[in-house]
Description:
This protein is of the alpha+beta class. It is built from ten helices and 13 strands. It has helices at 70-82, 105-120, 127-135, 193-203, 207-216, 218-226, 230-249, 260-274, 298-307, 316-319, and strands at 2-18, 23-25, 30-31, 35-52, 58-61, 64-65, 88-95, 149-152, 165-169, 177-183, 280-283, 289-294, 321-325. The site of (3R)-3-hydroxy-3-methyl-5-(phosphonooxy)pentanoic acid has 15 residues, from helix 2 and helix 4.
Amino acid sequence: MFMEKKTTARACANIALIKYWGKRDEELFLPTKSSLSVSLNELYTTTNVNIHKGDSDIILVNNQNFSESKNIVQFLDFFRKQHSIQDKYFIDSHNTFPTAAGLASSASGFAALSMALNQLHQLNLSKKDLSILARHGSGSACRSIYDGFVLWNKGKKKDGSDSYAEQIFEQSHWPEFRLIVLLLNESEKSISSRKAMKLTMESSPIYQDWITRSEARIAPMIEAIKNKNIDSVGAIAETDALEMHECMRAASPSISYFLPETITTINLVKSLRSSGIPCYVTIDAGPNVKLMTLDPFVDIIMAAIEKKTCFMKEGFKASFRGIICRM
Ligand code: PMV
């Protein structure tokens, strides 16, 4: 059934320090604003792609059948059309972290798939072209083509040819930087980011103000990363993320990804900070919280979290996990 050709590619998840939330063009996945992320080495997707001599694509994600996934099939159709390819594919993809729990699995997934397709057909696409290709699967995927700190410039052109990501600092730039992913809940998100960002754009009265403020945070964020200033990086990222969630809450109907444990964690982080520990939160389209800090503070932060009673509830402790990510 399968031809000889087979390729494997791997791409890291990324967490945005300045968020992308909203598209100016839905079909081309063009964002309303620029965004900036950090790629995480420990959280990645490995994707195998084979040519499949059947009528339709076969898609497995973590051994589950995703062959009906509209988003993945649409992406494959876009790729086939762009490169005048007729082939169907057998895709076998594995994440080292929960799918669709606000941990950017679609970002690493579409980035790994773009890289694997590029290898399979020996297209020799540049990183820029791979970033543009991955963007058509999920906006944030355009950032997962790179490691280190990554900037996705929103671009101005209607055809999206100037909307792609670039590495701004290498992985080795800031060895002490840590991102702790707290898996508070591993179930599927209540509303997809695609739907939620559309609803926010269409109905949140505070969305436009956030766009202006968030775009203006890019330059100070780059400066803060350059200077390895955790307090500036953390404060800017935390404000940006919490404001994004405020925009969602102000939408109609209101959107909230937070669980009680999400709020408890935010409060705990504030109290850690008041005792002099550099620790900041960022939250994506899900209840899980990511903490930004430096290596020497990881143990003390994890100890404080594990002591918190809400994480000790029966049944919760077993599923509670913190993944400490180096870049
Ligand atoms: O690329 P999407 O459609 O999964 O959207 C990602 C949105 C956020 O994760 C919330 C923010 C971001 O910039 O990654």
